[in-house]
Amino acid sequence: MIVDKTYWGSDLPLPLSPSDKDVEVYKNYLKEGTTLMLGCTKKLLPLSNRQLDLDPWYDGDTVIKGDWVDNNHFYTNIILDGGLCFNKKLTNDIIKMASKNCEMFISRSFKNKLDTMKIADYFPKVNDFKIAPKELMIYDDYFFYIWKF
Predict the structure, then answer these.
(1) What domains lie within the chain, and their CATH numbers?
(2) Which of 70, 46, 71, 40 is nearest to 58 (CA)?
(3) Chain centre to alpha carbon of residue 7
(4) pTM exceeding the 0.85 threshold for the entire prediction
(5) What's residue 38's pLDDT?
(6) Which of 59, 70, 99, 127 is the most exposed place for a label (fewest CB within 10 A)?
């Protein structure tokens, strides 16, 4: 894997970047099998077998260039960090895709816009989802949503 040291997300402050404790939450919910990460969150790279992103910040054998909602391959787990905060349609499209292509979908999503956020316009609450998550973990600035399909 060739890592680009100039990746803009390298210096994201907590809680935009997941903490070590957050990484443990992902680890604890992962089922045995394959894991696709939507995006390329640095701290979650070791948890994923493949990473799907339109514009990944590094090249490697595990990177798939493409749109998250276009995934049509089955993985045991799909993980995402912060990606449900772009807009309602994208959020529901991601969950619909995950419901067809994994057993477990785990996503950390912010409660509202933080001062350090560059892009985020939508902050889903549990009742906003067309397919409701099975579990919800509440933290100060964000939620963990866990879907079991």
Answers:
(1) 28-148 (3.40.50.150)
(2) 40
(3) 18
(4) yes
(5) 98
(6) 127
